[in-house]
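Board notes (copied after class):
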Amino acid sequence: MNGIYYYLIAFAIIWILVAIFHEKLSNHGVELNFPVIMWRTQKLRGLISKISNISPTFWRWYMNVGIVVAFGAMIFITWTIVSTLPSVFETPSVSIVIPGVDVPGSPIYVPFVYGLIALATVLVVHEFSHGIQAVGEKISIKSIGLLLFAIIPGAFVEPDEDELKEAKRTSRLRVYAAGSIANMTLALIALVLLSLVSVGIPHYFHEDGIAIDRIVSDSPSEGILKEGMVLEAIDNHHINGSDDYSKIITSFSPGDNVTVKTDQGTYHVTLGKNPSNESRGFFGIQANKHFELIDDSLGPLPWILFELAELFEWIAMLNLGIGLFNLLPLKPLDGGYMVEILLSYKLSEEHYKPIVNALSGVMAMIIIVSILAGFI
């Protein structure tokens, strides 16, 4: 069963339970306002205040630099998305991230467990950073919570809107930049940890071919090849490692009937069209390096290095990707509010509001087209 159905079933159960027990749940901060379910709490406000008060000067200067970085990142991600429009139907630049689900048009597949953990770090770090910076700017936090917009989950830190509006423009810029800057900082930390773990792998393992990690649903290999198989040769081209594999799979065309030799037997696959490049053949497999222990005296313990490496990789990728996306000049994203504040230095509200609204509309259309292009 496609992974998306598990999400739909889970969200349907949540909606049904909240609808049935709404009166009791409302006493615990749950609000039902279709199409949104919100759960608010005030329990974590003290923790946010403690973190903010550890070193208010550090947070202020950290985010002073963050404002500059955020605007630079905004220009980068906006240009990246706009410049890929001519090839959007071949390689969409924006796609939906759903752990455990093959999203049409997405060049990556996010594993379920690693994806959920990584997304949790994105939400917690992003929202807590908004709260920490708000407290540092003397803006009260009304509540913290989780929400479900139809089937889209999220989290929030709710500052006092009146105090936020009355705050200095630099203070508001620091608050809005805080979430994405924290995400990018965590991505950098995760990359450093990934590098440290990767350095340790060669001490315990040696590469021994290519193994199939996943079979793409409804692909040419589904029902023929299986996860865990080690690829030994494709059409008599022997596979010694990842370099050989990369060269071999790009040499085939759609419709080719290919012989695949594995450690579990020999199979025949008729290739389809590659979603990213229709001139190339598509196996529908996700493969990775296959390793063997050099010394098994430590038992299975060294294998945890691969689990940590993959976890750090997804934490880095999702924090960086979502952090950058949130800086797009598009309201209600943080980037949209930052552009609005920046323009307010030179323009009156009656002039900068229409500019930001128009820019938001254009960016929204580009993103929608890019997402739909993947499905088409």
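Comment from the instructor: The chain has a mean pLDDT of 88. Residues 169-204 form the longest helix (36 residues).
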